Amino acid sequence: MNEFAEISRELVKLIDEWEPILSHLPDEILTERRNRQNRTIKQILGHLIDSASNNTHRIIHLQYQPSPLIFPDYANLGNNDRWIAIQNYQNENWDHLIQLWKYSNLHIVHVFGNVSADKLDNVWINALNETISLKTMIINYLRHFKLHLNEISELINESKQ
Asked: Per-residue pLDDT tens for 103-144?
């Protein structure tokens, strides 16, 4: 869908920029430095994989289920930390994580391009009882993606001190 072309281009650009950066990080930076949420770079990347997966599912459900949609909310009430712990991203193969992050996000770009325009106002209700439209969710995806890349950048730069 042309409406999300710029978001999609920026996501692909960020993926292309970040893949080689992530690929060359030493293990001690990946596993020892922690952000404000006590997450390592491996766990942050795992969270971005979860975000791509969950948002892909929401986008699909919002196009064929009745609106408002009540859909499991992994991002609030600590559930995202449960996802990170249960999947044990801290001990996942780093190269596999990078590729899963890359291709999960390239796939969501593809999904953005195939959203039905007449479904953009469909909403889902999150765990905080907020309604979020399909359009808003897609627009906010890039912001969320950048937020976590910035956290990774801070952790990388912190290690250089």
From this structure: 999 999 999 999 999 999 999 998 889 999 999 999 999 999
The answer to whether 31 and 90 are in contact (CB under 8 A) is: yes
Give the position of tokens 């997966």: 53
Residue 137 contacts residue 55 (beta carbons within 8 Å): yes
Residue 1 has pLDDT above 70, yes or no: no
